[in-house]
Design a protein that fits this description.
Length: 276
Amino acid sequence: MAQSWVENDELLLLLDGLDEVALERREACVQALNEFSQECMMPMVVCGRSADYESLTKQLKLRGAVLLQPLTSQQVNQYLADVNLPAVRKLWRSDTTLQELAEAPLMLSIMTLAYQGVSTADQTSFTSVEARRRHLFDAYMQQMFKRRRVDQPYSPTQTIAWIGWLAQRMTHHAQTVFLIENLQPEWLPTRTQQDIFRLIFRLIVGLLVGLTFGLLVGLLGLIWGGGEAVIKHYLLRFMLYRNGNLPWRLVPFLDYAAERIFSAKWAAVTSSSTGC
């Protein structure tokens, strides 16, 4: 089904995060998208931040563009009234930096989750948007930790430290979606740790391959050795039962023929392996 979609240009491509592509590769990415859109007539949508897109020298050759405007004060005020958070609403009205952050729907959603059950007396004013953003995310993480079960093996400090390291590594490798199979030795901070990881990995792979090969050789030896008589026995019985009119006096002859066949097969296998 997927092959037919590709052949008939029946796909609609939704490509998000153009601004998350590494800066030195964005121009080439835009060029590749333009070439692809000319070769294939399938519709395509590309998303990215307007400021990052306008800084590029090459532009996308698409049919149109949609610019999402920030939320207005009336929209934010109505939203906070609908979710019934009077303390957050009062704080938003008195804090200009919070008003700037609330213009983005994602930050507004985080704000409503982070400041649930917090009175305005617990909040302090901030002179910069960055300081307010940091405080907002700290409060958001604390709220998320309260939702966790009590029997968690890791403390909040450990979790924050490891998630922070993971975010730094993902940013360094220009990744926005975490997949555990994408973890590579290059993510380790030092060259020594990377070499140790590769050595341990090779040892594990070598042990697995050696054990598998040893078990396979042992099984083949059992089949061609002690299991040969069993195979011949059931082979003969199968031939006799399938041909009910076969006289029993032919059993010794069939036994001799089967033994000759097995001997010839084994000789052919050993000679071919020796030649290799």
